[in-house]
Amino acid sequence: MKRVVSFSIGFLFVLSLLAIQLAPKPTAKPNIIVIFMDDMGYGDLGVYGATEYQTPNLDRMASEGIRFTNFMAAQAVCSASRAALLTGCYPNRIGITGALFPNAGKGLNQQETTIAELLKGQGYATGMFGKWHLGDTKEFLPLQHGFDEYVGLPYSNDMWAVDYDGKPVGENDWRKKAFPLLPLLSGNDTLRAITTLDEQAELTGIYTEKAVNFIKKHKKDPFFLYLPHSMPHVPIAASPRFKGKSKQGTYGDVVMELDWSVGEILKALKENGIDDNTLVVFTSDNGPWLNYGNHAGSTGGLREGKGVSTEGGQREPCIVRWPGVAPAGTICNQLASNIDLLPTFAAITNAKLPDHKIDGVSILPLFKGDNQATPRKIFYYYYRRNNLEAVRRGDWKLVLPHEGRSYEGQQPGNDGYPGKAPENTPYPMALYDLRRDPGERYDVQATYPTIVEVLQKIAEEARQDLGDDITKRPGHNVREAGLTAKNK
């Protein structure tokens, strides 16, 4: 009897060892990279319909991952969109509006939680190389918001005392008084000033080199890399290696160099043996600045562009590559936004969400290829300080009466010079079925009055929560931006 018991215990022990060996080992936390363009339009990549230049690296990234067709920037302007991406909040919830000027005395509040801070709490190394634009005084810079390393510009590359032709402005020009020298920062300190278009042409290469070195340095650690390029925001300039390479002039050259940058990132992942455990997200902050003509991108047929609460202003290219998780060569048509990245990364890494209210939802099911999932059903289109200009539910979009920018009917500029883009164009109430009419040309509110009623209720919920300057409604759940001591 003892022999039988002994044999049984030994047999069970062997089985348990085999089970341990055969059981799937816990997957290491994935590295996370966000590559963020500036003013890139929905139609600016080969896989989204671009012509007369090639984007082979991004096209390959799409073939190896998921291409989103309904991915929205939270607002159609620089600082607001960046605040949204990093905090998971509509920017008006946290007091960030428009594009912050140098010496604004304002920035991202220290009480907000960024993706970098969230992942740093999970043991991630954090690095950022590129345009910040969430406050330019020390207390607001990236190192004070969770990043271990930073090299880049504190705001947009057009915020300098240089004219459209690349020559310094005159002493009486308003830009001479408004803009200090454009600084390239390292951490909290200035490395050097950017003073010419030739020096602007170096930026894509500088950011890329720093990002690749960061990957090499942290290949044995989980890391979060944020790479927000300064271009193709004007003024645009390509390095000598890419100058004159496209059939679409300087803009095509610049996008080809940005595509090269993405290729360098993907190559670094391969060479350092971490490609299989790295999630890469590529998208843009808002649509193209269309009044710059041949120095602006394409919306791919969507209406209007940067600075407008239309699809051309806010619908962005988005590609997600995550080997072994995101199914290769797939297209996701579900609604999603850059405010959804923070909660998605939290879900991936088991990080605790911030205690304060955020607006993003985890779209991890979409990253895994579940195209039946609908984690985001509703989206608010806010602009200016706190104007609710439209709401969306699924494919239905209700434009609320407002005045705004319009490029239509205006002669665009050329070769770096802007054309007109009036800011007081009336936008009447209109209902669009974006599934059939992504260009927002056919108002169907008379045909679908019930849909209008549903969307008006959603608009009222937004006003109660976030407020609405158009209807003079204060928000109940909004927070203040950070202010310097002299502006408090």
TrEMBL record:
SUPFAM superfamilies tied to this protein: Alkaline phosphatase-like
Stored Pfam families: Sulfatase, Sulfatase_C
Domain Sulfatase N-terminal: 30-350
One example GO MF annotation: transferase activity
Cross-referenced CDD domains: GALNS_like (cd16026)
Keyword Manganese: no
Domain of life: Bacteria
Gene3D superfamilies per the UniProt record, alphabetical: 3.30.1120.10, Alkaline Phosphatase, subunit A (3.40.720.10)
Annotated keywords: Hydrolase, Transferase
InterPro entries referenced in this protein's UniProt entry, alphabetically: Alkaline_phosphatase_core_sf, Sulfatase, Sulfatase_N
Spans annotated as Disordered: 466-488
Family note: Belongs to the sulfatase family.
Protein name as catalogued: Sulfatase-like hydrolase/transferase
